[in-house]
Amino acid sequence: MSTNDPDDEGKEVARHEGDLPSKFENPGLPAHPHRLTDVDPKTARRAERQVAFLFLLSMVGTLVMIVGYFVVKMDHDLGFVAYLERLELSNKVLGIGMAISLLGIGVGAVHWAKTLMPDEEKIDYRHLQRGSDEERTEAVEKLATGVEESGFARRPLIRNTLLGAMALFPLPGVLLFRDTGPLPGRDLAETFWKAGDRLMLDPEGGPIKASDMVLGAVAHILPEGIEESEHPLNEKAKAAVLLIRLEEDLLAPESIPGSYAGIVAYSKICTHMGCPVALYEQRTHHLLCPCHQSTFDLTQNCKVIFGPAKRALPQLAITVDDEGYLVAKAPFSEPTGPSYWERSS
């Protein structure tokens, strides 16, 4: 029979008939072997300096990351090979700095715990989940005692170096997040599309007539003149469009004003994470994003019917010019691409 009651200590804890004794005495805890740092103040001070050195080493690693981030310039004008070499050097400097920073904090904390914090074994008896007010007060006192025993308050060298290492460690993360670029602002709200732009086939180029779009046909489209823009790749990433023809009576009422003879044009950029929505199921009239399986229904103005996307694909209003070529009626009425906080503004 086992017990969790402290009052039972030293009493009978097991019974057995036969050759075994009728009871066993509680053997208690074995004698505690003291560490050298427990009995020798000089050794304890040396261990304290070692822990502080490890925390200082962590600070050095963090500073290496920060300095390396600014010193190793990533310049595309160097050429492709030189750029890759710089990229490799930058990754090595950042990686080594982060490794030193994490290693210093981790090893320092472990060394502190194993050499300077109390390591005596204690028995903690189980009680009900919610203790009395007196027990809760006692628990707070024990926590305060634990803080005192850890040496955090009375070992300022360790405390200050640890605080310094922990304060410096997040800074490289702030710098690395800076590389994600500025907030999009109006960049996603303004694409290359404008009223009168002809719809050009991608990638073969050339305009497309409404008569070229048979029922069920799908075409990948970009605006006319986008290749001559200042940043054609960036512009294509926002302006890519899917052109599809289906029966006019299947179209949702809100999508009809932007369509022409059953031909509709929707942004090709998924509103979840910006992947290309390039899979069309002709039987169900669904558009599928292959990255995370967001599904949009063409017959419901590209409303999301499945997946993580939260917004419908923006529609590009189209018509034809005097020669029968498909052209844009107007730019997109809302930002294309994935959602972000400032979209509504």
TrEMBL record:
Spans annotated as Disordered: 1-41
Q: Superkingdom, according to UniProt?
A: Bacteria
Per UniProt, the ranges with Acidic residues bias are 1-10
Q: Where in the cell is it found?
A: Cell membrane
* Chief location bin: membrane
**UniProt keyword annotations, A-Z:** 2Fe-2S, Cell membrane, Disulfide bond, Electron transport, Iron, Iron-sulfur, Membrane, Metal-binding, Oxidoreductase, Respiratory chain, Transmembrane, Transmembrane helix, Transport
Q: Which InterPro entries match?
A: QcrA_N (IPR045603), Rieske_2Fe-2S (IPR017941), Rieske_2Fe-2S_sf (IPR036922), Rieske_Fe-S_prot (IPR014349)
The protein's matches in SUPFAM superfamilies, at most eight in alphabetical order, are given as: ISP domain
The entry's protein name is Cytochrome bc1 complex Rieske iron-sulfur subunit
> Has keyword Transmembrane?
yes
Q: What membrane topology does the UniProt entry give? A: Multi-pass membrane protein
Please give the start and end residues of each transmembrane region. Answer: 51-72, 92-113
Question: Rieske domain location, by residue?
Answer: 223-327
Q: Which family does it belong to?
A: Belongs to the Rieske iron-sulfur protein family.
In this chain, composition skew of type Basic and acidic residues spans 11-22
Q: Does the keyword RNA-binding apply?
A: no
- Its biological function? Iron-sulfur subunit of the cytochrome bc1 complex, an essential component of the respiratory electron transport chain required for ATP synthesis. The bc1 complex catalyzes the oxidation of menaquinol and the reduction of cytochrome c in the respiratory chain. The bc1 complex operates through a Q-cycle mechanism that couples electron transfer to generation of the proton gradient that drives ATP synthesis.
